[in-house]
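RECORD TYPE: protein structure
NAME: Glycosyltransferase involved in cell wall bisynthesis
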Amino acid sequence: MKVLFQARPDFMKNPAGDTVQIVSTGQALKDLGIEVHLSADPNIDLSPYDLVHIFNITRIKESYMFFLNAQKQKKTIIISPIYWPPNAYLKREGASSNALAVWKHMQPMRARLLGECDLLLPNSQIEMDVLQQDFLKLASYQVAPNGFPDSFIGATPELFREQFPDLPKEFVLSAARISPRKNQLWLAKTCHELGLSLVLLGPVNDQNYYKMVTAFSNVTHMGTLQGALLASAYSASKAHALPSWFETPGLSSLEASACGTVVISTDQGSPKEYFQDMALYVHPLDDASLRTALEQSYNASPLPLMQHIQKHYPWSRVAEITLEAYHKVLN
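PREDICTED:
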């Protein structure tokens, strides 16, 4: 089987959750013997491919062009929407006034893709429920969850501690691009008030926001870590916190839990479908919720969540679910 993945042109240059989902799903499908190609060309000749898999309808303009091209060439189209309505986030203090209007203006484009593709692969049933609330007509679907690297199972703190011996023994970790949507400023401020060291991993999306976050003396930003070193960082941390405005469900929360770390997650989006009652939840508009979760994290056990995530969400399993969906739609 030959599959073409299509995604925003800058998905490698400006990495985000969709980048990890695309690369990890593609690699795990290749391990199953599927030929996976990647292209951001909206006019590519699709004749060599059995199907086109388009990722992310948040950035809809590029996805819409890929969709029109695939439709014109009568190709089977699968869409991973990675969708969550950003209304609360776009209405927050300091948000750009026209951002919500632009989002709403693009909804008819999203509606066309969601209604006319051959199959939707939402990351959770919760995401599908929200799509059903926001759009009238939807294609059939199968939930294909997000995952974590199989190699993260059994991660230990040693590698990270050897490479960064000067870091405090106990720290809270947050691995995500540094931007207002990920809400690190709230996390930095609350950790500072509680006297907790905070280590941030990930690329900087917003330079002004980054300056405000790193102005706190308890914050260390270490750039982006990958592979075994990232797994070791998760394993070394006391807790991993992702208090974002929404997540579907937050790849770093999945990865951290697989490495045996207590997870503090936003309650907005689909985290509860993945983590159930085994994570600590915060609400972005409830200041006290983060303080409470950070205090509770020091006595919480990561083991129930670790076992649950390791059983259900390795990328190898996600690829099997995805391939099953491909076969179903092609047959």
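COMMENT: The chain has 15 helices and eleven strands.
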